[in-house]
UniProtKB/TrEMBL annotation:
Record carries keyword Transferase: no
The keyword Oxidoreductase appears for this protein: yes
A Pfam entry, by short name: ADH_N_2
Domain of life the protein comes from: Eukaryota
MF GO annotations: oxidoreductase activity, acting on the CH-CH group of donors, NAD or NADP as acceptor
Boundaries of every Enoyl reductase (ER) domain copy: 43-322
Source lineage: Eukaryota, Viridiplantae, Streptophyta, Embryophyta, Tracheophyta
Record's protein name: Enoyl reductase (ER) domain-containing protein
Gene3D superfamilies reported for this sequence: Medium-chain alcohol dehydrogenases, catalytic domain, NAD(P)-binding Rossmann-like Domain
Amino acid sequence: MAVTVSTLPELKAPKGSGGFLVKNLYLSCDPYMRGRMRPPSPASFQLLTFFGFQLCQPIEGFGVSEVVDSDNPEFQAGDFIAGMTGWEEYTLIQKPQQLRKISRNHAVPLSYHLGLLGMPGFTAYCGLYELCSPKAGEFVFVSAASGAVGQIVGQLAKLEGCRVVGSAGSATKVEMLTSKMGFDAAFNYKEEADLDAALKRYFPQGIDIYFDNVGGEMLDAALLNMRVKGRIAVCGMVSQHAVTDSGPGIRNISNVIVKRIKMQGFLQSDFLHLYPRFLDHVTAHFLAGDIVYVEDVDDGLESAPAALAGLFTGENIGKKVVRVVPP
Ligand code: NDP
């Protein structure tokens, strides 16, 4: 991997411009970042909140940082913040994006603001509650269930009294889902020759809610197993990132019609007005011990590219984070 060395940016923002310099402590590895590496300006990017990465510039992503110098009265040296930053040791932030201050008396580890209390946890919260309206006794299926989003979806659904089954890509992850995160059952999709048969085994009465993190063949199999008036939150399609041809495609989409399934894609950024409510809800459940959270931390900026790539081969166990400054 090529490492670019540049000089520490001076805080050059004129007074009142709102610029501030931060020291990056933790960086978040997220699957959407793969999409930002495609050639610029595909039509779909115009609908997204983020654009392609700039060549020869540090990668941009969510991070937790400490303000070291500021020309912005709202942010002072010593403040901890979570929001968009660069994959570099120090970043000069001139246009704060999805940025919030973390209380100095934070009761939750700083890095959790990239997962449990950050964008992935929020994605779980708004996707589950706003799109799926879970009710006690309903059958919920979550794919990529042990990851940053999936682990929170499953545990929130359990708190609502649902029966929750997750799929994941290794025996360790499957074990973690049932023994640590309280899922009712879990299975390793890589060991299932027939995903439809696997879902019929775990959901003999069908699925009310499918929280789809992977797309592809799993979505196709879930469509066959949805109950009438089921809901599908189309959160992500991580299985499709490496697909170069169109493959067999989704064959079972007509189930959406005959079963009157509500299937909706979403971006967490559609729901940012709910962020304070999410923070209260999830923080309270975490501090009460109702929700556990698993993260997978690599040390050093140089580990970041491999950490990101590992999301697409399932190497991460829980939310993948890079600690820029080792303890
Ligand atoms: P994860 O922490 O779950 O990491 C990605 C996981 O995806 C891997 O660990 C791996 O788990 C699984 N995976 C990788 N390749 C495949 C494959 N070919 N088939 C099936 N599973 C695969 O990531 P996140 O929780 O951060 O993200 C989960 C999904 O949510 C992604 O699709 C992401 O794009 C989406 N997302 C959407 C948002 C929105 O606003 N709509 C916001 C945030 C995330 P395993 O070992 O189990 O295969």
